[in-house]
Amino acid sequence: MSAKTDTAIKLTASLGVGLLPGAPGTYGSLATLGLAAAWLALGGAAFVGLGYWLGVLGLSALAVAVSRAALARGVFGPSADPSAIVIDEAAGMLLALAWSDRLGWPLLMAFAAFRLFDIAKPWPVGWSQSLPGAWGVVVDDLLAGLYALAVTRLAVGWLGG
């Protein structure tokens, strides 16, 4: 394959922010949060319903496919879970943001909880990284997103939001 293909895979897998120095997973999560906040601020529909869940499923499938391609091509080096691949963080953040319907502290809590679970990797988040290939890259972020969703929704139910 060509250098153009490698560049396309790098940009798709990294959402453009995964290639920045520092904390690419946090940058990918922040980019997703920013897009979600902009969507809500501009009057976009709440993150509920069949369309939303089909979008999460589609992005998750894309994350697996792009991660698989990047790993197969070795464009990010020999790592089993290259930090530059952040499309999996976007998929996890979308799960964490489910049922969000307005701007406010629940969006920030979903972000913070997602990053906490993605970094701390409680069971089965950490275990899922041992799944083969791209599955190990993506599933841990989806599980961290589900944990963050549960914590955020419990807080919203308890505190109001």
Entry summary:
With 161 residues, the protein is mainly alpha-helical.
Keywords summarizing the entry:
161 residues, mainly alpha, 70% helix, globular
Plain-language structure description:
This protein is mainly α and 161 residues long. Helices cover 70% and strands 0% of the residues. The chain contains seven helices and no strands. The chain has helices at residues 3-14, 24-41, 49-73, 87-96, 105-120, 125-128, 133-159. α1 (3-14) crosses α3 (49-73) and α3 packs antiparallel against α4. It is globular, with a radius of gyration of 15 Å. The chain starts with a helix and ends with a helix.
State the helical fraction.
Answer: 55-70%
The H-and-E topology, N to C, reads as: HHHHHHH
- CA radius of gyration is 15 Å
Structural class by helix and strand composition: mainly alpha
| Quantity of strands, as a count | 0
The residue-averaged pLDDT reads: 90
* Beta content: under 5%
N-to-C CA distance = 50 Å
Gross morphology is globular
Q: Please give the count of helices.
A: 7
Quaternary state of this entry equals single chain
- The poorly predicted ranges are none
Task: Please describe the biggest sheet, giving its number of strands, its sense, and whether it closes into a barrel.
Answer: none
